[in-house]
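Sharing a chain and its predicted structure for anyone who wants a worked example. Both blocks are below, sequence first, tokens second.
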Amino acid sequence: MKIKIAILGAMLIATARPVVAHHSFAAEFDGSKPVRLVGKITRVEWTNPHSYFYLDVVDDKGNVTNWACEGASPLALTRRGWKKGDLKLGDTIVVDGYRARDGSHYINARRVTFPDGRSLDGGAPPQPAPAGSSAQTSAGSPAPK
């Protein structure tokens, strides 16, 4: 009996973490705050349940900020045409997405444009910005609508 309880407890612990780690778009990101980032890739995490990559973005004053960009799972990205080697350290890319609700340097990456001009979907289809939105990028130019 103790063995069954121990196995059940282990199974609950093993399955609880992924459930806690996964979240909805609306829980973490603000669909009314589109942003476009242009930066150099500094790190890539091709992991489940979401992939992550990080960009060094230089603002108008020359300050460098490292942004975290969340994408879909590796399987979902592969189905959208991604290859694991598409994100290369040091490459400059353009990322369109939505800012985190907490205002941190964290976005949900919806579209990524690579140095060769190819563009791929990084998550669910982009949500349109609200009418009259004046969201700005980190560099100060208007974000795509």
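Comments welcome. The chain has three helices and six strands.
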